[in-house]
Give the backbone structure.
Amino acid sequence: METMREVLGRKRESSGQILPVTTILISGMLALTGLVLDGGMIYQVKRRMQTAADAAAMGGAHELFRGNTSQIVAAAREDSSLNGFTHDVNSTTVTVNNPPLNGPRAGNNLFVEVIISRPVPTTFLRIVNRQFSTVRSRAVGGLVAYADGCVIALDPDDRGALTVAGTSTLSSGCG
């Protein structure tokens, strides 16, 4: 049977471990918090950048549809700029390729590829010597043959978007 002095002596031997363990745990929690906050900021920029890339690809595709192939790059960069990502501003690059260089539409002149890239400054990841994180988004837009139908109702929620009843005849000069 242990005496009270032996029990108290053992407690004294293990004292002083709380401070190093707490320091390690708090450091880990701060690092994880920093990663979450920086990751959230990077994801938010990525989301906005993808919207800009989608709009830019559609803008380039519209010029392609109009036959203005010399205006594809300007239109795509303008639409990207309207969404907050201007070429050569804040180290942003907006690359426009017709035809696309990668993906399933590579080499097809009926499509426009837009790649937006920007370094995003980090806050907490600087602790591990990560000053920036480069974010990229890619979108492809183009001309696709549509179905044989030539009358299209674009508003599926509007009950009167297209109504044909009784012995009506619908004549169209397409197809």
User: Anything to note?
Assistant: The chain has a mean pLDDT of 85. The CA atoms of residues 98 and 112 lie 5 Å apart. The first strand starts at residue 93 and ends at 97.
